[in-house]
Amino acid sequence: NAGVMQNPRHLVRRRGQEARLRCSPMKGHSHVYWYRQLPEEGLKFMVYLQKENIIDESGMPKERFSAEFPKEGPSILRIQQVVRGDSAAYFCASSPPGTGVSDTQYFGPGTRLTVL
Amino acid sequence: QKEVEQDPGPLSVPEGAIVSLNCTYSNSAFQYFMWYRQYSRKGPELLMYTYSSGNKEDGRFTAQVDKSSKYISLFIRDSQPSDSATYLCAMRGGGSNYKLTFGKGTLLTVNP
């Protein structure tokens, strides 16, 4: 059973460009979460999605950031007009449907975004 | 006051030592508590998952939760060089509140 897959693993963008980060959850998992890890900071929650629905986006910056999890295909985290402060590691996690221990979040390897 | 406080270390111990890692938190709504291990430039890997107060043991790892003190701990017995990593505590509320709140992580080095 393949784990959570993220691509690309490394992404370099110039200021003002768009960044698209992809996440394929583990097989059987219908919940996807995105977290950001800034240098010297802990992981910070950004958004929680289920298929075709955004459940909680309380951690998303109000501008330039968006996320989707379509019926078919991977979840996408999109950052428009990137700035240097967006440079970070972005982690996706997935969990199966349900509550309690069964909703353990499993993390992918991350995408490291560098904005020049 | 941050919701979750974790001493970033670094912590350096000799092989075979008992390691104690801990976090404190301020949000009394937290009910589920986790420890993740993160190797350099990798994704976090779940080590322990506990619900409410009490102890849980898994091999060389023991997790303790004291909700009355808002304090959680991870103990590693007979530490190995392969345990060298950053250890992250994480916690969340109950019900449909799935958002994890993490500590900053403690960098552990186990010297052979």
Question: Could you please describe the fold and organization of this structure?
Answer:
The complex is a heterodimer of chains A (about 120) and B (about 110). Chain A is mostly beta strands. Helix content of chain A is about 0%, strand content about 50%. Chain A is built from no helices and 11 strands. With about 110 residues, chain B is mainly β. In chain B, about 0% of the residues lie in helices and about 55% in strands. In chain B, the strands form 2 sheets. In chain B, strands 2, 4, 5, 9, 10 and 11 form a 6-stranded mixed beta sheet that branches. In chain B, strands 1-3-8-7-6 form a 5-stranded antiparallel beta sheet, with no helix packed on it. In chain B, a hairpin with an 8-residue loop joins β9 and β10.
Q: Low-confidence spans of chain A: pLDDT under 50, at least 5 residues?
A: none
> How are helices and strands ordered from N to C of chain A?
EEEEEEEEEEE
SS-derived structural category of chain B? mainly beta
Largest interface, Cβ cutoff 8 Å: A-B, 29 and 24 residues
* Mean model confidence by pLDDT of chain B: 92
Number of H- or I-type helical stretches of chain B: 0
